[in-house]
Design brief:
By secondary structure, the protein is an alpha+beta fold. The model has no long low-confidence stretch (mean pLDDT 95). Strand 1 and strand 2 form a beta hairpin. Helix 5 runs antiparallel to helix 6 and helix 6 crosses helix 8. It has 2 domains: 106 residues, Ubiquitin-like (UB roll), CATH 3.10.20; 136 residues, Fumarate Reductase Iron-sulfur Protein, Chain B, domain 2 (Orthogonal Bundle). Belongs to the succinate dehydrogenase/fumarate reductase iron-sulfur protein family. InterPro entries: 2Fe-2S_ferredoxin-like_sf (IPR036010), 4Fe4S_Fe-S-bd (IPR017896), 4Fe4S_Fe_S_CS (IPR017900), Beta-grasp_dom_sf (IPR012675), Helical_ferredxn (IPR009051), SDH/FRD_Iron-Sulfur (IPR050573), Succ_DH/fum_Rdtase_Fe-S (IPR004489), Succ_DH/fum_Rdtase_N (IPR025192).
Length: 248
């Protein structure tokens, strides 16, 4: 018998079902990641005590820390299961679903709230038509330098999970959406909807609901300067408020 890794998984059969813990022993391999362990359980759904169970339900897609689908709480920290290497994790390994989103089953949660928020802040560059529009407007290199890291956001939910103001009792849209407002307002074409985006984050659940805990920037897997974005949007919303006040 080779070396085994003990894995504790928090499971839930449906959104209404009670949660329970199950433990598995996974054969150790060098460079093993959490997704590979879950795939092993899929093929051989047997508990550490030898009792048969059902395969663990989880979500994944790109397997290279780009899509954000496999985000879960690993040893108490929100991160992607595809890039979480077993050799770098404390044993036993504990896997839990994100707590700030509705659990669909086991480790699979519904992050719809984050995507609906992107619709609210118009997190895209709006263009007219599908015909060839020619080369797009150029951005200054110094703008590109700070804007590119913001574009790496994959809506994974890590920042929301770590934020004390993002929960079922709050309407707060979260750090990711606010950062995307900064990104698209900096784009020469995206700036046409600048005021609409600022109005969106000045509304209920917007930037004023941020408690400045700064947990988000600590857990972001892409090292996005979320607190810088929040600070910058804070200044822009103040300017927008004065602008609206002078017109009224």
């Amino acid at each position: 018998m080779g070396e085994k890794i003990r894995v504790r998984v928090k499971r839930q059969d449906s959104p209404e079902a009670p949660a329970r813990w199950e433990e598995f022993d996974i054969p150790y391999r060098k460079n093993l990641n959490v997704i590979a362990m879950l795939m092993h359980i899929q093929k051989n759904p047997v508990l550490a005590n030898g009792q048969k169970t059902s395969p663990v339900v989880y979500e994944c897609n790109c397997l290279e820390e780009v899509c954000g689908a496999c985000t879960m709480v690993i040893n108490g920290k929100p991160q992607q299961a595809c890039s979480a290497l077993v050799d770098q994790l404390q044993k036993p390994i504990t896997l839990e679903p994100l707590s700030k989103f509705p659990v669909l089953r086991d480790l699979h949660v519904d992050r719809k709230k984050m995507f609906e928020t992107l619709k609210q802040v118009k997190g895209w560059v709006q263009i007219d038509g599908t015909y060839d529009l020619g080369p797009g407007p150029r951005m200054a290199p110094e703008v590109q330098e700070w804007a590119y890291p913001l574009s790496r956001c994959m809506t994974c939910g890590c920042c929301a999970e770590a934020c004390p103001n993002y929960n079922e009792k709050s309407h707060f849209m979260g750090p990711a959406a606010i950062s995307q407002v900064r990104l698209f307002n900096a784009h020469p074409t995206g700036a046409m909807q600048k005021n609409e985006r600022l109005d969106a984050i000045m509304d209920k659940g917007g930037i004023s609901d941020c408690g400045n805990a700064q947990n988000c920037v600590q857990v972001c897997p892409k090292e996005i300067p979320l607190t810088t974005s929040i600070g910058d949007m804070g200044r822009e919303t103040v300017k927008r408020w004065f602008s609206r006040a002078l017109r009224s």
